[in-house]
Write a structure and sequence with these properties.
Strand content: 15-25%
Helix content: 10-25%
Shape: elongated
Radius of gyration: 24 Å
Number of strands: 9
Structural class: alpha+beta
Largest sheet: 3 strands, antiparallel
Order of helices and strands: HEEEHEEEEEE
Number of helices: 2
Strand order of the largest sheet: 1-9-8
Length: about 180
């Protein structure tokens, strides 16, 4: 009887240890379920330059800091010069001002690939536009396709989701967040 009782107590203790380890594992996985949320202080990026980060799917994201006067140029650009001036056919988070296509006028966050074949864009030497070397498309510093460039199937550059977390800080959000 004593041996059976000790066996049952030991079995119960083992079950508690196993259940506790399973419970701890699930809490731990909840804590690291979404580790990809990098934060960027764009005050550290010189005006007219960008910082590149890796997206979880392997593509890059650029954080471009606009130069003085660029916001006014974006806001004053005639809609007739743009392929999709209101970004109605673009992939971007809800609530962005169409002229900036960003949550803050000083910074533009985007995938540096044109939307037709995924050709990478580059920063033009004048640093006020992005250029698609595959098709000749040009994009302003809000990623809007300039009307007479590129090919018909191209759209404005893609803007991933992010949130502002300070005066000059942002946090990138993972796809589908």
């Amino acid at each position: 009887l004593a041996v059976k009782l000790l066996f049952l107590v030991g079995l119960g203790a083992l079950a508690l240890v196993l259940l506790a380890s399973i419970g701890a594992g699930s809490h731990e996985s909840d804590a690291v379920a979404d580790p990809w949320r990098p934060e960027v202080d764009w005050s550290q990026i010189p005006a007219g330059e960008y910082r590149a980060l890796q997206w979880p799917d392997g593509r890059e994201i650029w954080i471009y800091r606009r130069q003085a006067g660029e916001v006014a140029r974006l806001e004053n650009r005639p809609a007739t010069e743009l392929h999709d001036p209101d970004s109605r056919h673009s992939r971007q988070p809800v609530g962005l001002k169409p002229a900036w296509r960003s949550r803050h006028p000083d910074v533009f966050v985007f995938h540096p690939y044109e939307t037709r074949r995924g050709c990478r864009v580059s920063l033009a030497p004048d640093k006020r536009e992005f250029v698609d070397v595959c098709h000749g498309a040009r994009f302003d510093s809000a990623g809007r396709l300039l009307g007479e460039t590129g090919v018909a199937q191209q759209q404005n550059l893609i803007v991933p989701d992010y949130e502002l977390i300070g005066e000059q800080r942002l946090r990138l959000l993972p796809p589908g967040a």
